[in-house]
Amino acid sequence: xxxxxxxxxxxxxxxxxxxxxxxxxxxxxxxxxxxxxxxxxxxxxxxxxxxxxxxxxxxxxxxxxxxxxxxxxxxxxxxxxxxxxxxxxxxxxxxxxxxxxxxxxxxxxxxxxxxxxxxxxxxxxxxxxxxxxxxxxxxxxxxxxxxxxxxxxxxxxxxxxxxxxxxxxxxxxxxxxxxxxxxxxxxxxxxxxxxxxxxxxxx
Length: 203
Prior knowledge:
mainly alpha, 9 helices
């Protein structure tokens, strides 16, 4: 996708005389950074060429540093897990508050660290609740939180709702678990990233 995007940008420069290549977001160094999946290995900011590719770089960073996340969140009781989750959301809220576009263009470790830590904490929460078998309306309530977050334009609240959704759907008791496990929906979810990663090319 990066190569196709770069070719499209260069072709646009030639045809429309836009002279984009060489400007701040379209330099050789940023191209190499994107090619090596290092574009998100910084505090925050636009990732350059195919900027939506920052998410792949962020995932790569998370996989490389996964042992550190596990060490930072060892097995613990529910109270400590919830306290750490609250701190992670507070960090994310600070990132959102200092970004002109909320979390949408804050690709980098400033966004990655608290979000991925929340994922690790969700796993720890399941381990700390061996007798809990889920809530029937958990996913519905989480979706409602996500909808309110979109209405209020508060990305951090949406992340909290999404975390609740993931946690709820991990239990078979939830009313939406079977619905969202239908093969066609799972397939669409898996291929949706193909659309996400190429969204900038038509522009």
